[in-house]
């Protein structure tokens, strides 16, 4: 049969944002693919060069609309490295709690968006119902539901409100029951497993070479998590484990990538509980935060989607001279011809959905 | 392989200078442009740096600087007795009148789009890159906006 190119996007339910995937098909089988970006490019790096260091947290919030706190956090962490700012211990605990709440919200957002990709609209409603719980929690200290601007250079905006721990505990308990429901609804569902198992396979070695990190890499059985390997905040003192899954020896499929995120949500619940147990009293903001910086610094953090890296160069003024953002999805999308090849056209939503695309951070 | 042995071996390689430790698990080095390809091949083949985290181009007027962040994710490189993953930061100096360097996207596929982005926004040419096109800006865009001497001009477009 004759080969032809099909353009999926920029407006297509599969894309989860604005980007185009051109696929070359031979009948129903994918032969080649060519992803195209740039529809959401806002030149954040260039804008950042004209704003003061502390102003940029509003930009980093808007990098990813599903996981904004983690992005602001990795920027703030890099600036603190550059300015050599010490963060009070209580602020580090609060940050960790916020990061894990955000990770829960982000994974639930992903799971809710993934289900309609597979034709399971009900799944979206269930997952997004639970995401609301965590958005409510994130709203309490920060005052907003989507773009929090809560992480500040040297600490956090304000201390946790009264009764936050009790409210969180109540929601976590409810959420754990819901996770069991999901196991019945999705993991044990034959249709869900038929759509996801043995689809979109790649090995751990391939993934590392292609620049795929985060849950997608842990889904291949690679025990890699920057919260441990390049540890930041207080993850060292918390009692938790890295979650890995694999579909077979050393490779992942859509189902293992789904499962690793479900496991991670359980682990996030554990981290939050342990944080509340160990959290000390004290200030939440460093007493002295400089305005100017020189030299260069970078920090990597484990974003909800993979390795986030912020590289900053300062020239002694109050604005960054160069600010570079590494987005995990940028490289993951670039590798999509590799893991799409050989599958059917109808598998594209299942495969591209399973890697958790967020175009905001990708296009910068 | 231990991180300390790696530092010793790196020091012996020709073209490597100013080796220093930024953090416990991060080495920073300066590299000569002429030996870059051979050096990166060695990093990948012999020293287990199987993941290219980031390629950044910086416009240090008048010249450019390329910064490569490479990391080892598989745990083959051990940093003392910790669980940390090893990382290397490589700085390469590029002259402004010849901003080109050998591409590493055949070594790490993940470097492919980082190089395209550096070309797109900073105008660095990667020799041997399979598909050096703009990635974020539209085709036909004039200039490279992250350069410090870039001036934004509003062009009247014909409709």
Question: How are the SSEs placed, and which strands pair?
Answer:
The complex is a heterodimer of chains A (364) and B (159).
Chain A: E1 3-8, E2 20-26, E3 29-36, H1 44-48, H2 57-61, H3 68-83, H4 89-117, H5 121-142, E4 151-152, E5 155-156, H6 164-187, H7 190-196, E6 202-203, H8 204-210, H9 215-218, H10 226-229, E7 251-252, H11 254-278, E8 294-303, E9 306-315, E10 320-326, H12 328-334, H13 336-340, H14 348-354, H15 359-363
Helix pairs in contact in A: 3-4, 4-5, 4-11, 4-14, 5-6, 6-11
Chain B: H1 3-12, E1 16-23, E2 26-31, H2 36-46, E3 51-60, E4 63-71, E5 87-94, E6 100-102, H3 111-122, E7 125-127
Parallel strand pairs in B: 2-5, 6-7
Antiparallel strand pairs in B: 1-2, 3-4, 4-5
Keywords (chain B): Transport
Pfam families (chain B): Complex1_30kDa
Protein name (chain B): NADH:ubiquinone oxidoreductase 30kDa subunit domain-containing protein
Notes on the protein architecture:
The complex is a heterodimer of chains A (364) and B (159). In chain A, the strands form four sheets. Chain A has a three-stranded antiparallel β-sheet. The mean pLDDT of chain A is 88. In chain A, 47% of the residues lie in helices and 15% in strands. Chain A has one domain (41-329): Orthogonal Bundle (Cytochrome-c3 Hydrogenase, chain B). Chain A is built from 15 helices and ten strands. In chain A, helix 4 runs antiparallel to helix 5 (121-142), helix 4 (89-117) packs antiparallel against helix 14 and helix 6 runs antiparallel to helix 11 (254-278). By secondary structure, chain A is of the alpha+beta class. Chain B is an alpha/beta fold and 159 residues long. Chain B has a single domain, classed as NADH:ubiquinone oxidoreductase Nqo5 subunit (Beta Polymerase, domain 2), CATH 3.30.460. Chain B has helices at 3-12, 36-46, 111-122, and strands at residues 16-23, 26-31, 51-60, 63-71, 87-94, 100-102, 125-127. In chain B, strands 1-2-5-4-3 form a five-stranded mixed β-sheet. Chain B has a two-stranded parallel sheet with strand order 6-7. Chain B is elongated. The mean pLDDT of chain B is 85. The A-B interface holds A 37-38, 41, 43, 45-46, 204-205, 208-213, 217, 222-224, 226, 228-231, 298, 300, 307, 309, 311, 313, 321-322, 324, 326, 330-331, 334-335, 338, 363-364 and B 25, 50-54, 56, 58-59, 67, 69, 71, 73-75, 83-85, 87, 89, 108-114, 117, 121, 134-138, 145-146.
């Amino acid at each position: 049969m004759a080969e032809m190119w099909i353009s999926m996007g920029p407006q297509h339910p599969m894309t989860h944002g604005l980007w185009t995937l051109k696929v070359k098909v031979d009948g129903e089988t994918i032969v080649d693919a060519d992803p195209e970006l740039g529809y959401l490019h806002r030149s954040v790096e260039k804008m950042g060069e004209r704003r003061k260091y502390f102003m940029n947290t509003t930009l980093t919030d808007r990098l990813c609309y599903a996981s904004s706190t983690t992005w602001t956090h990795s920027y703030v962490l890099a600036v603190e490295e550059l300015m050599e700012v010490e963060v009070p211990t209580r602020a580090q605990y609060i940050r960790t709690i916020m990061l894990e709440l955000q990770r829960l919200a982000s994974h639930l957002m992903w799971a809710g968006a993934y289900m309609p990709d597979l034709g399971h609209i009900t799944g979206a409603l269930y997952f997004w119902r639970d995401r609301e719980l965590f958005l409510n929690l994130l709203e309490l200290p920060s005052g907003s539901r989507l773009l929090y601007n809560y992480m500040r250079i040297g600490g956090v905006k304000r201390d946790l409100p009264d009764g936050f721990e009790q409210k969180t505990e109540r929601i976590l308990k409810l959420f754990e029951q819901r996770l069991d429901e999901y196991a019945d609804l999705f993991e044990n569902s034959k249709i869900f497993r038929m759509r996801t198992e043995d689809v979109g396979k790649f090995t751990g070695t391939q993934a590392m070479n292609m620049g795929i990190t985060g849950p997608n890499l842990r889904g291949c059985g690679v025990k890699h998590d920057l919260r441990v390997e390049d540890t930041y905040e207080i993850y060292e003192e918390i009692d938790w484990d890295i979650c890995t899954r694999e579909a077979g020896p050393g490779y992942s499929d859509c189902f293992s990538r789904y499962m690793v995120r479900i496991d991670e949500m359980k682990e996030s619940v554990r981290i939050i509980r342990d944080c509340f147990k160990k959290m000390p009293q004290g200030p939440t903001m460093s007493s002295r935060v400089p305005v100017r910086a020189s030299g260069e610094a970078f920090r990597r953090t484990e974003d909800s989607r993979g390795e986030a890296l912020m590289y900053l160069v300062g020239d002694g003024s109050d604005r960054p001279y160069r600010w570079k953002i590494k987005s995990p999805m940028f490289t993951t999308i670039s590798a999509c011809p590799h893991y799409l090849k050989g599958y059917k056209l109808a598998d594209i939503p299942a495969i591209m959905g399973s890697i958790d695309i967020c175009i905001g951070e990708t296009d910068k | 392989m231990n991180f300390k042995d790696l530092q010793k071996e790196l020091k012996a390689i020709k073209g490597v200078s100013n080796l220093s430790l930024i953090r416990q698990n991060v080495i920073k080095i300066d590299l000569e442009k002429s030996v870059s390809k051979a050096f990166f091949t060695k990093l990948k083949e012999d020293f287990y740096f199987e993941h290219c985290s980031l390629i950044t181009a910086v416009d240090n007027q008048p010249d450019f600087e390329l910064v490569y962040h490479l990391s080892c994710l598989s745990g083959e490189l051990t940093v003392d007795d910790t669980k940390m993953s090893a990382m290397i930061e490589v700085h390469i100096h590029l002259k402004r009148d010849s901003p080109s360097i050998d591409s590493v996207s055949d070594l790490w596929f993940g470097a492919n789009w980082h190089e395209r982005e550096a070309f797109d926004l900073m105008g660095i040419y990667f020799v041997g890159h399979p598909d050096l096109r703009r990635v974020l800006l539209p085709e036909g865009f004039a200039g490279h906006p992250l350069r410090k001497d870039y001036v934004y001009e509003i062009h009247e477009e014909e409709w």
